[in-house]
Amino acid sequence: MSNSPLTPGIVPARLSEASYARNFADHTPALDRHEAQVAADRCYFCHDAPCITACPTSIDIPLFIRQIATGTPEAAAATIWSQNILGGMCARVCPTETLCEEACVREAAEGKPVEIGQLQRFATDTAMAKGLHPFERAARTGKRVAVVGAGPAGLACAHRLALHGHDVVVFERRPKAGGLNEYGIASYKATGGFAQREVDWLLQIGGIEIRTGMELGRDVTLDQLKADYDAVFIGVGLAGVNALRAEGEDKAGVRDAVDFIAELRQAADLSKLPVGRDVVVIGGGMTAVDAAVQSKLLGAETVTIVYRRGQEKMSASGYEQDHAVQTGVRIIHNAAPVRVIGNGHAEGVEFAYTSDGPGGLKLSAETFTLKADQVFKAIGQTLSGTPAGLAVEGGKLAGHSGKVWVGGDCAAGGEDLTVTAVAEGRDAAEAIHAALTGA
């Protein structure tokens, strides 16, 4: 084990092979059939179920749980997929504790909701294991649609368009389809290459071609797509990362958390992935939590998340924050980075305490310093360039114009969640279908 001259302390192989296997195993093991039956029996099967309203894709949750309870998980999977074609991944990464499960009547009555996410995973995993794809493509319409971005929004849009009989070409800048499902979430949430297996399963509908290594603005222009296709869907996500605006953030050892997570997700051997001894993650969202927890699991001795506002303002759910703390991550609130300390490489980060009042966030004169040989920036993502001809609203792409529709994290409005992106991609596909057919 040797230190890099530019980043001393950031090294691979801090742990044993057995430790890596244990640390990055499935964080929430799947229910077996008996456990699923017991969990399903707790559902009241509400007629006006609040869990459906809380689900961004409006899955008929009582129906699919009843189908599990009656021993037909394959039918339950079809119910889920009819609304959310990426239901398997959403069951793994969706913050169900703040969506459907928070709205569950059992949660209000007993403080323990029906395990909706786990039941959704049981149903979709059962059907996928049998190779079932319960959709048949309509007759070809002769219409061609370009989808830019093979993330959750783009894939959901492509599948629904193909289902309606349109031919779809998906342009993806990265080597693999999947977007954040493949590159942007903690690996222990989707083990065994599930993201790619779900993409392969989705493509069974037929009529979808995915062209990787194709970036909008570099390899193809929006004008070209508008000329060559009957409609265009833009679902490029948010590839840019906000700057810290702190002195020294260009030092070695400081990097974007999303890049670290992507590198980890694609690593064939975790023992070859370097991690610091003392890691500081700056931010308060899911990316910050995923980067921090995985740093700890890779063998970092101390990992600290620092967020500029109070705990109640953190966008990471309480469940995820608790998981981070239980993993050994410290969370400090109400502190903002002032400068990264070090001679060429990071050795520490100086923070100022903050107060968040009616006039906005204010930095105090009181500061403290955390030792850090590795610093991750997780303070929000932004558009990486704006396609010519598209309007920008609040730093994101607005609505749709003419032959172009927009959806997912890059679109104005809504939450940056996988399940929301799926809903927007699905709904855009229905709008495109109506526009192309006059339906």
Helicity range of the residues? 25-40%
Strand content: 15-25%
Oligomer description: single chain
What would the average pLDDT be, to the nearest integer? Answer: 94
Largest sheet properties: 6 strands, mixed
Number of strands: 18
- CATH classification, class level of the largest domain: Alpha Beta
The N- to C-terminal Cα distance equals 64 Å
Condensed summary:
It is built from 17 helices and 18 strands. By secondary structure, the chain is α/β, with parallel strands linked by helices.
Description:
It is a single chain. With 439 residues, the protein is an alpha/beta fold. It folds into 3 domains: 33-129, Alpha-helical ferredoxin (Fumarate Reductase Iron-sulfur Protein, Chain B, domain 2); 144-239 and 383-437, FAD/NAD(P)-binding domain (3-Layer(bba) Sandwich); 242-377, FAD/NAD(P)-binding domain (3-Layer(bba) Sandwich), CATH 3.50.50.60. The protein is built from 17 helices and 18 strands. The protein has helices at 17-23, 33-40, 50-54, 61-69, 73-83, 87-93, 100-103, 105-110, 116-129, 152-163, 180-183, 194-202, 222-228, 257-266, 286-298, 318-327, 418-437; strands spanning 144-148, 167-172, 208-212, 231-234, 240-241, 254-256, 278-282, 302-306, 330-332, 335-341, 348-357, 360-371, 374-377, 381-382, 392-393, 396-397, 400-401, 404-406. The strands form 5 sheets. The protein has a 6-stranded mixed β-sheet, with helices on both faces. Strands 6-13-7-8-9 form a 5-stranded parallel β-sheet. Strands 10-11-12 form a 3-stranded antiparallel β-sheet, with no helix packed on it. α4 (61-69) packs antiparallel against α5 (73-83) and α14 (257-266) packs across α15 (286-298). Mean pLDDT is 94; it is low at 1-5.
